[in-house]
């Protein structure tokens, strides 16, 4: 059985309570960290582990921690990004609702390592029920002396605050999240200064994803080297993958980084294959913003090798034939899926979620939504397809935050790999606009 | 039903909760309590009227405009009156792949209303929202804090019939 770092006990009845979590070995990392380690030693272990940001960017977590400025007499903050909103992604939701204490424990050791005495968990507002679960867990941990003043007699104080968002995808971007946490509109900030220097309340701040932080207790207990021994190359450890779409077993899986995509989709241990009677058509591997790949390219690299579930293998070939691991939002589509329609729902999403601050994103996402809507409804022309590519190109790289890129990539990738479907909508509007219509021409299925 | 907002004030329990929330933040940073307080206000009134926003501003000693600009940015806050049960259904790709469009079509025909509308008896309001982070359990909608997942026509019947009894 592969090692489970985050989900080993997730199905143990009552694991959401302090008592059971403790019985299963929970909070031993807090004891070890506060009683036997210095903050710098913990940072060192996290660096050695090679764990990369699990929210989507994949930036090495230990390096991010080491950038934190430490001016005398200025508070530092740790903020957990639990604003999970990237379409296709629901792993943090799953982890927090089932095993809230794992995140709390991670927040304690991480806050200690960074020298933060007040830390925040920013949860998307729609997950209010999860906020209640976390608040209950925090109260239990506090009652046990693991939060508050002088934790375990170490002299270290920590308060945890759970903050609700208000329904805005953009707040998953770390500087927008900090604006929101300060009670403002979620408009991303210009960088530099980076949050590590000027973050929450203009103080040095680290923002980390839920899954990233949840890895830290295991790293403290077992050491960074043990973590780095799992996985392949620079893709160390395990990764939570949220699976949706046309597989037999959608859900959240903790995989060892390095298994083949083919295994992940077809093995009974994971997705269990495509639903009966259907065939794989395409996959969006890392949340809606990463490039969609047709079946043959998601399973196989250009050189014929099998593609692996790692940061490097998924991005092999660049955007021409590759994609990204992103947040691990793995959306699987069979032959009943109309790529034009699916791309339209993504474009509509980004149009709705653009904060409106940068013109290329504010205007461009609207254009893409409208033009795609026109094509989907049989009113497009051939020039519209090139227009979409052109608009996507003009958004990409021209905005303060990555939402612009996130909006552009799914559109340009869909046209790159499935242009014939867009053309069919233009040339066969009557057929293409029938309910459930899908192009059945040159379609490569697996 | 939505309460009228002639004299706006939190109930004593909610006022105590609001004060506890405001005290969570460092001195001088009480504006951080804005989103939590707007949620608390919406829980009490069903929506956030200009009077409610003014009241929240007064609790935080900030300008009303600072509340208006925030409340209008975040889609969870209803700036107009809504029905007793606001059904917010996810319209994003993964839910659509799981049969969302058919399920929501059934929901609309069952309630006899379109997105953005409220049933004549004031019981149900229908809203389209973007991804609710429950993609593997789609189609999904949310009513207040509760998630309803893996929706089928039969499940929708059960949920609506149950809520119609109130």
Put the structure in a nutshell.
The complex is a heterodimer of chains A (446) and B (166). Chain A is α/β, with parallel strands linked by helices and 446 residues long.
How does the major sheet of chain A shape up?
Answer: 5 strands, mixed
Cα-atom radius of gyration of chain B: 18 Å
CATH superfamily of the largest domain in chain A: NADH-ubiquinone oxidoreductase 51kDa subunit
The overall pLDDT average of chain B reads: 95
| Count of discrete structural domains of chain B | 2
Largest sheet strand order of chain A: 8-7-11-9-10
Output the number of helix runs of chain B.
7
What amount of the residues of chain B lies in strands?
5-15%
Number of helices of chain A: 20
**So what's the oligomer here?**
heterodimer
Identify low-pLDDT runs of chain B: none
Distance separating the two termini of chain A: 28 Å
Uncertain segments of chain A are: none
Structural features, described:
The complex is a heterodimer of chains A (446) and B (166). Chain A is globular, with a radius of gyration of 22 Å. Chain A has 446 residues and is of the alpha/beta class. In chain A, strand 2, helix 7 (128-143) and strand 3 form a beta-alpha-beta unit. In chain A, helix 2 packs parallel to helix 6. Chain A contains 20 helices and eleven strands. In chain A, the strands form three sheets. Chain A has a five-stranded mixed β-sheet with strand order 8-7-11-9-10. In chain A, strands 3-2-1-4 form a four-stranded parallel β-sheet, with helices on both faces. In chain A, strands 5-6 form a two-stranded antiparallel ribbon. Chain A has three domains: 18-228, 3-Layer(aba) Sandwich (Rossmann fold), CATH 3.40.50; 231-334, Ubiquitin-like (UB roll) (Roll), CATH 3.10.20; 339-432, Up-down Bundle (de novo design (two linked rop proteins)). Chain A is 43% helix and 12% strand. Chain B has 166 residues and is of the alpha+beta class. Chain B folds into two domains: 12-71, Orthogonal Bundle (Arc Repressor Mutant, subunit A); 85-164, Glutaredoxin (3-Layer(aba) Sandwich), CATH 3.40.30.10. Chain B contains seven helices and four strands; from the N terminus they run ααααβααβββα. Chain B has helices spanning 12-22, 34-45, 50-60, 64-71, 93-97, 100-111, 153-164, and strands at 85-90, 124-129, 141-143, 146-148. A four-stranded mixed β-sheet of chain B has the order 2-1-3-4, with helices on one face. In chain B, helix 2 (34-45) crosses helix 3 and helix 3 packs across helix 4 (64-71). Chain B is elongated, with a radius of gyration of 18 Å. The model of chain B has no long low-confidence stretch (mean pLDDT 95). Classes of the chains: A alpha/beta (446), B alpha+beta (166). Chains A and B meet through helix 7, strand 3, strand 7, strand 11 and helix 16 of A and helix 2, helix 4 and helix 5 of B.
